[in-house]
Structure formats: C-alpha cells, structure tokens
Specification:
alpha/beta, globular
C-alpha cells in the first residue's frame, strides 16, 4: 500500500540517515482508548459467534472482503450491488439476496465497507459511493515525504490515531461504536486486524475483548477499521490495553480444549494461545497492524467460529442446521497479480522492488493458507452436519422444525473466490493496474464497481447456487465497451456444489 511513498523514501537514503537523528523527538499518538470490562459474566457474550438463527430457515449467505485499499472497497461494493439486484425465491415471494446476508467479514480496505454496511444495512448501498469511494480518503493520511515524516516512520509509523480514524469518524461512521454494530441482528460483521506480537489474526469480537477484560461495545468502529488497514511504517500500530486482574468473565471452554489438543488446526491454536496470553497478563498492550499480514481474505473469523464449536452444527443453532439446504460463501479478492520486469532479467529484485515483493509474497501466501484452512474446515463441517442430521430421531426432527419431505442429505455448499482474473486477461490487466491507495479517480471507481458486479454474475459457483434454488441465472453481462474480455469457460468442477 502507498508504494509511491516507499519508493520516494527509499531513494533518499541521506534523508533517512538524517531522520534517524530526530527519531527520539518524534511523538506517536496511539494511546489505547478501550475501556475495562465491568459487566457480570451473565451479561457478556464470550462466544465468537453465538448459536442463533440466521435470516431465513433454509439458506446461509456470507461474504468476506479482502484488503486492497479503495480498490478493494469499490470492487466489494460492486459485489454488494450485484447482491441487491439478484432476487431469490422464498415462501412469501421473491426477495433481494442482499437482505439474506448473514455473515460479513472485512480486512483493510474491505473492512471500510464491511463496517459501514454492518452499521447502515441496505441504506449503505445508496450513499457509500458518494461518502467514501468518490472522495479523497487520504485527507486523513499523511503521504508526503519529509524529514519529519521519515522520522515518524522510523519511530513506529507516519500516521497515528489522530489522522485516519478521525477522518473516518467525521466522514463515514459518525462516531459509531461497536454497541451500534453488535446491535444489528444481521449481518454479523467481523473486522480483522493482525496481532503482530502473537502473529495471529485479531478479530474485533466479544470473545477477543473479553480475554483482555475489555469492553468491545464502547470501542470506536473507526479505530478497528484503521487497525485493519494499518500498513506497517505508513501507519503506527493501533494499541489495545490489557485489563486482566479481577476480570468478571472467564475464557470460553474451547480455548483450553484447543490448547490441550496437539492436533488442533494451527489457525485456531495460535488464536487460542493469544487469548490465553491476554488473560494471563503476559501482554500489557496488544499492537495491531494491517489484517492482511496474516489473513488478507478475512476468513479467520468464520473458520475459528466453526473450529471453536463443540457441536456438529455450530456456529448455527440446531434449528437452523436442520432446515439448512444452501450455504453460499464468496471471498471477494481484490489482490493484484505479480508485476514488475525484474523477473525477465538475471539481476533483481533490488531496492523497493525487493521490499514490495517480499511483502506481497508474505501477504499472498498467508491468504492462500487461510483459504485452504477455510475450505478444509467447510468441507469437514458439511460432512459432520449431514451425519448429525441423518442421525436425528424423529422426535428431534420435530423439535428442531424439520419440514415435511425433509431430506437429511439435502445440503449443498457453494464456496468460491471472486477475483479480477475471473474476468479475462485483458480486463484483469486493467484492474491490476489500479493502485492500492485510498484515493482513486472516478473512472477507476466505476470500472471496479462494474467489475465486482460482473465477477459475481459470471462466477460458476454463484450461478450454480442460483440454479439450485430453481432460479435461472441471468446471461453473463456483455464486455464493457473498449475493454476486450476473454470468454471464461465453466469448468465442470467449478459448476458443481462442493
């Protein structure tokens, strides 16, 4: 992110050397603002996601928005508009798929939209473009190169909590806290950052803050989003204080169960270890940076929610698990393809190319790992769910509300990734050329929004999902004028449900 800033800084080594002399005089203002937890145990929800019924009784729909600055926000917004325009059948008639969204996760640029939609719901579609995508969000971010800013970068980060979070509050979130976000029944929203000491995902959820004996409800949404987007050096870490000692709640039982299990998945094991370190008081301050450092797809929240469950149907309620027939989870990936000419020569990469290549490699490998863990977890969940459903007694079926003609095997999962590459090489090349920053020209914003809608409507898994509901998918959209788009054949393995 902000590659140009890094490039300029790298080219002026003399300035960097001089800046090192004034680091000691540089102040970073990232004092923690989270408050201690004072509620009694019965008043605090310590599950990552409680087992509650979702919007409708036969379908669960989830989205995750990857990192990528405003490019990610615009591409993801295009997907949401595609959801709005897609109507699916219910027992009472057709309804927009947007109104059936149950879970929403966001990282970095994707978290900006995830949080805004979580706060405003359908109303976010009407004004997000004007309030965020078409404005200069870098007004709250220092990007100019100077001796003082390089010194701040060396001291911990050029931008601190007095910049971007304040801008987000004033222009987008209207000083909202998580109390407002958690109050919304659907979708359940996860904002994801990286705990760089514990090298694990930091999910802004009640269980994480309860481990710190802190109250998530009073925490500003803007700070969570800023933490999720805090690229190292460009931003200083967002700091969360640990208030352990006399804590009114204990850790959920699954934390110890996972820590005692040598075969536990690495993702939930590292998260459980972090929660234990918070509770033990080993860590006084948690330092948060860009969520893309450990999980650029934002899949940790749902993956951990499933792995933490001690039931074959969690994180769903048993009534929902019995009635479930279709599960749709789409990862909206705004990541860029490899770039640069140094792969065509023996020398290189060097300088800024080396730094950026190393960063991109770490981010991409982490994203691939999180997707693999998620995909495996979902496959296991589906198998466990079917076994549980088929093992229910007739009395349990009635108790959980199984409808007439119920088939315990009738569960289909549709899991896929929406990306630039799904739109053909020419169009993907144009989209890959969009910079990762928080200010883009309107024509690029429109290009990204259209790409999000088209990536959704041409995705084989999404079209198979609609077909499974008895709805004929609309024909794939025509290529935009002036942009040649290669045809994307539907492979048999992509068209079927998993």
């Amino acid at each position: 992110m902000f590659v140009a800033w890094f490039q300029r800084a790298f080219r002026v080594g003399g300035i960097i050397a001089s800046a090192a002399l004034v680091v000691g005089c540089t102040a970073i203002h990232n004092d923690p603002v989270n408050q201690p937890l004072t509620a009694q145990p019965a008043e605090v929800e310590t599950a990552l996601t409680p087992e509650v019924e979702t919007n409708y009784d036969d379908m669960v729909v989830a989205l995750s928005f990857s990192g990528g600055g405003m490019r990610a926000a615009a591409f993801s917004y295009g997907v949401l508009t595609g959801f709005e325009d897609t109507h699916v059948p219910t027992r009472t008639g057709q309804i927009s798929l947007l109104d059936r969204l149950d879970f929403l996760s966001g990282v970095s640029g994707g978290s900006v939209l995830a949080a805004y939609y979580g706060l405003k719901g359908r109303a976010a579609i009407a004004d997000f473009k004007q309030r965020f995508l078409l404005v200069n969000a870098e007004e709250g971010i220092t990007t100019n190169l100077s001796l003082g800013n390089i010194a701040r970068g060396l001291a911990g980060g050029v931008n601190d909590a007095t910049g971007f979070p304040v801008w987000l509050d004033a222009h987008l979130y209207d000083h909202a806290t998580f109390a407002q976000l958690l109050r919304q029944p659907r979708p359940r929203v996860w904002i994801n950052a990286s705990d760089v000491y514990n090298r694990t995902a930091f999910i802004f959820a009640p269980v994480t803050f309860s481990a710190l004996c802190s109250d998530l409800a009073n925490y500003p949404v803007s700070l969570a989003v800023a933490a999720s987007a805090a690229v190292p050096v460009v931003f200083a870490p967002i700091v969360i204080q640990d208030y352990t000692g006399g804590c009114p709640v204990g850790l959920p039982s699954w934390v110890q169960r996972v820590r005692d299990n040598p075969n536990a998945a690495p993702l939930i094991k590292s998260y459980a270890d972090a929660l234990e370190r918070y509770r033990s008081g080993e860590i006084k301050y948690v330092k948060l940076l860009d969520g893309g450092l450990v999980d650029n797809y934002g899949l940790a929240g749902f993956t951990i929610a499933r792995l933490a469950s001690d039931s074959p149907f969690g994180p769903l309620a048993p009534q929902e698990a019995v009635k479930l027939r279709r599960f749709l989870f789409l990862v909206v990936d705004s990541g860029r393809a490899p770039s640069g000419k140094w792969a065509q020569t023996i020398p290189g990469p060097s300088g800024i190319d080396l730094i950026m290549a190393t960063s991109d490699t770490a981010t991409e490998s982490g994203a691939i790992g999180s997707y693999s863990a998620f995909d495996g977890t979902m496959n296991d969940w589906k198998n466990n769910l079917v076994r549980w459903r088929c093992g229910l007694s007739e009395a349990d079926r009635r108790r959980y509300g199984a409808p007439p003609g119920w088939n315990c095997h009738d569960v289909q999962f549709f899991i896929s990734r929406l990306s630039f590459e799904g739109l053909g090489p020419q169009r993907a090349a144009a989209l890959n050329g969009v910079e990762t920053r928080f200010k883009l020209p309107p024509d690029q914003i429109d290009m990204l929004i259209a790409a999000g809608r088209d990536a959704l409507n041409t995705n084989p898994k999404f079209r198979a999902f609609l077909t499974s509901l008895g709805r004929v998918p609309p024909p794939p959209p025509p290529p935009p004028r002036g942009v040649p788009v290669a045809s994307t054949p539907v492979a048999p393995e992509e068209a079927r449900a998993e």
